[in-house]
Amino acid sequence: MGWMKGSGRTAVRALLAVLAAATMAAAKGTTTPVPGTLNYVEGQVMLDGRNVSAKSAGSEVLGVNQLLDTGQGKAELLLTPGVFLRVGDNSELRMISPGLADTSVGLVKGSAIVEAAELFKENDLSVVVDGSTTRIEKNGLYDFNADQAAVSVLDGKATVYEGDTHVTLKKGHEALLASAQPFHSQKVAKSAVETDPLYRWSKLRSQYEAEANFDTAQTIVVNGGWYGPGWYWDPFWGFYSFMPADGFLYSPFGWAFYSPWAFPGGYYGYHGYYHYPVRGPGYRAPFVGHNYGGHGFGAPRGFGGGHFGHR
């Protein structure tokens, strides 16, 4: 299908997603994944000592006290609905608690990014690094590095607890956990973040997740199958996508996640695959840069245009 471009390729993708949904929904689409579900694998990845591959997406789960190890590879895990955890090369992650109301992981070595597109006040989501516990308090983007013992809030808000002390980190700030300096908040080096391989990979994965959401929402509008907000298996992409309860929301990277109710006519009618934009009126990305207008999956506003500045 290399000769197809633009809307032709999109139409084929939509058709394939609709057809495949009928046969694969029973296998995975109606199963709600639990926190720790492996959603995507790239390269060398081991789960509790076993090699896993791209075929493991949606079926393998990191259980309590189990380890996820990456060599020259990366992995994406699902936490609570709307929260993605992405692990970089040469990293090790331990599952501490996989509960929906108490979700906690420990980064033993390497790096990880948490993208929280939707977080509720009932969620208690934390990441442990070098003996310090970071509680994620708002939707946003959070970077963790066990080798450098650092926690960075690229967007959102988090509180880092270390012994009897704690520090609150807001957008564009970080804390060094193993420093000779007093435990405090400092500004993040933007240039270091925007060139980091895990950040760039996570940004791309966020875009793919948004496209999978768009496919799945359209499929539900046509065929039905809505069972409420949460994770939905997309057979075309081969991983779970996130769908909010109503309308649409934007990820920290600026990509939109739609509910079937957000489309013209809502869940009651289908009004064409190409006619609804990925970004809607009132779009406000946390990373301010170029303004890409028009319809379709254009690039989000960039990190390089003043990332931690205005919203």
CATH-defined fold name of the largest domain:
Jelly Rolls
- The CATH architecture of the largest domain is Sandwich
**Category from helices, strands and their pairing:** alpha+beta
Distance between the termini: 40 Å
Low-confidence runs: 1-27, 267-311
- Can you give the mean pLDDT? 79
**Judging from the principal axes of the Cα atoms, what is the shape?**
globular
Tally of helical segments: 3
Report the biggest beta sheet as strand number plus sense, adding barrel if it closes: 15 strands, mixed
Report the count of strand segments: 19
Amount of helix: 10-25%
Question: In sequence order, what are the helices and strands, one letter per element?
Answer: HEEEEEEEEEEEEEEEHHEEEE
Oligomer: single chain
Describe the protein's topology:
Layout: H1 7-29, E1 37-47, E2 50-52, E3 67-78, E4 83-87, E5 92-98, E6 103-109, E7 111-116, E8 125-129, E9 132-136, E10 140-145, E11 150-155, E12 157-162, E13 165-170, E14 173-176, E15 186-187, H2 190-194, H3 197-223, E16 230-234, E17 239-243, E18 248-250, E19 256-258
Parallel strand pairs: 6-8
Antiparallel strand pairs: 1-2, 1-3, 3-4, 3-5, 4-7, 5-6, 7-10, 8-9, 9-12, 10-11, 11-14, 12-13, 14-15, 16-17, 18-19
Give your account of this protein's structure:
- This protein is of the alpha+beta class and 311 residues long.
- It has two domains: 37-189, Jelly Rolls (Sandwich), CATH 2.60.120; 197-305, no CATH class.
- The protein is built from three helices and 19 strands.
- Helix 1 (7-29) crosses helix 3 (197-223).
- The radius of gyration is 19 Å and the shape is globular.
- 44% of the residues are buried.
